[in-house]
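Whiteboard transcription, Tuesday session. T.W. wrote the structure tokens on the left side:
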């Protein structure tokens, strides 16, 4: 009975919990190393993609969760990356983008109204 309690029976067959745990323990550190070995360059690329998405969708109801999902990272990790690399929070950066876009729109409106 001891051996059966260590197994999960399914259509594929028996899988030992110990085997799964062992696999997770071996593969998880490798995944983390691959993801972070790129260092600053890959982090800059992630920030670039996040900011590009923010600039393209600034008028939408953007959240840290939605942008993090777009670049395939957790909200906590993306938030820490903004703070570390940009020295500002995600929300501060989003506000900067929206203010820049608003200024550009106002400047365009002012120029077109003075021409008339």
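and on the right, the sequence the group agreed on:
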């Amino acid at each position: 009975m001891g051996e059966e309690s260590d197994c999960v029976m399914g259509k594929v067959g028996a899988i030992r919990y110990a085997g799964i745990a062992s696999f997770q323990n071996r593969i998880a550190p490798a995944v983390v190393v691959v993801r972070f070995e790129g260092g600053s360059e890959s982090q800059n690329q992630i920030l670039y993609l996040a900011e590009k998405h923010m600039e393209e969708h600034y008028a939408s109801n953007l959240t840290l969760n939605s942008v993090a999902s777009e670049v395939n990272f957790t909200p906590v990790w993306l938030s820490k990356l903004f703070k570390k690399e940009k020295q500002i929070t995600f929300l501060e950066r989003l506000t900067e983008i929206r203010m820049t876009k608003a200024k550009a729109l106002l400047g365009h409106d002012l120029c077109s109204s003075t021409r008339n």
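Someone added at the bottom: Residues 1-17, 28-38 have pLDDT under 50 and may be disordered.
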